[in-house]
Amino acid sequence: MTTRAGRAVLAAAATAVGLLAAWFIPSLAVPLAWPLLLLVPGWVLIGSVRPRIDAAGRIGLGVVLSVAISTHLVFWLSHLAGGYARGVVFAALAIVATTVPLAAWQGRLSAGRLPRAGAVVVALAGMAVVGVTLGVGLWRTTATGISSGGSNWSDLGVHLSIAETLNAGGNFPPQVPYFAGVPLVYHWFADFHAAILAQAAGLFSVPAMVVQSTVLTGALALLVFSLARRLVRDRGAVRAAAIAAALAVFAGGLGWTLFIRDVATGAGTPLDLIANHSYDNQWLTDWPYFRIPSVMGTGLLVHRATTAGLPMLVGAVLLLIAGLPSAARRAAGWRDNRWCIGLAG
User: Fold this and answer.
1) In CA terms, which of 11, 156, 302, 316 is 20 to 30 Å from 280?
2) Could you give the maximum distance between any two Cα atoms of the chain, in Å?
3) How far is 242 from 248, CA to CA, in rounded Å?
């Protein structure tokens, strides 16, 4: 057996054993199945396309492509199977898992070059803010009932209901609550992906939503860094890319300044404060009444549809630019990468 074939066989066997273990022990789906829904197929696909994109961009694209592929695959398999269930999720997992032995055969399982330090720092900072804030505030059991942060977290009750009724069975595709039998036309892509994560691991949907938002926030930072680095063509490109990533994730509003004030004045511990207060813009009602939406407060923390849509949009632009070389690069022999252009579409 050749080295390549041996790698592929070992990867296929290990993946199959992992999925089998996750089927019988649902909690194992978190370390064994969730990477297949959040990173692996997109990472392998973008590696096969061989775009001229740095490590930060490839990881970010791996995330958004994996989320898109896994969600749509489960959706169409559910239609073919006549309904959505855990078995359909694992059928989709088995399909996307074929990318693992393929990558082993091609010798592309290694991470390769690591992302630049600036990209990693911004991505980890954004993930920490989103993960911790949602982890302590999105769903808290109190003496008087369930508390959900300092705001309604963009109608969490509606979106959580979509995910939970999907996993409870009998509501695929979801219907409009007040018009029985009418398909839901409201955005539910992010809810469906969170439901898939939760279904695979036998979990309540809230922890899956927290992990989903955290991972997609990191992807946004990495993709903005990669895109900015590609557009800036001087010696300060890496520094400009890090600044662009930080602005994309943390800028757009100054409501967070109230958090610093409350910590400084001893209004509570940091975790208690972010669990009970929404440090977003107050718009027209109170200071700080800034008109510019906050990406972090209004988008990444509150609106998971935006948390999924923003990195997908940036990823599409990055793929398009990578697939269409500039005039100078064409003169140097670069050609269109049709796969990148297709993935961007």
Assistant:
1) 316
2) 71
3) 10
In this structure, how many other beta carbons lie within 10 angstroms of the beta carbon of residue 239?
Answer: 13
- 243/297 Cα distance (integer angstroms): 19
pLDDT in tens, the chain (345 residues): 568 788 888 988 999 999 999 999 999 999 999 999 999 999 999 988 888 899 999 999 999 999 999 999 999 999 999 999 999 999 999 999 999 988 888 776 555 677 889 999 999 999 999 999 898 888 888 788 887 776 656 678 888 989 999 999 878 888 877 777 888 888 899 999 999 999 999 999 999 999 999 999 999 999 999 999 999 877 889 999 999 999 999 887 777 778 889 999 999 898 888 887 777 766 566 665 666 667 888 788 888 889 999 999 999 999 999 888 877 777 777 788 888 888 888
**Rounded Cα–Cα distance for residues 112 and 110 (Å):** 5
**How far from 277 is each of 134, 136, 272, 274, 303, CA to CA, in Å?**
12, 11, 8, 5, 16
The SS3 of residue 175 is strand
Q: What is the β-pairing status of strands 140-142 and 179-183?
A: unpaired
Q: Of 40, 18, 71, 97, which is closest to residue 196 (Cα–Cα)? A: 71
CA–CA–CA angle 129, 298, 153 (5° rounding): 80
User: Is residue 257 within 8 Å of 280, Cβ to Cβ?
Assistant: no
User: Tokens 């969490």, residue?
Assistant: 156
Q: Cβ neighbours of residue 139 under 8 Å, at least 6 residues apart?
A: 146, 148, 156, 206
Residue 84 corresponds to which amino acid? Y
Cβ atoms of 57 and 222 within 8 Å: the answer is yes
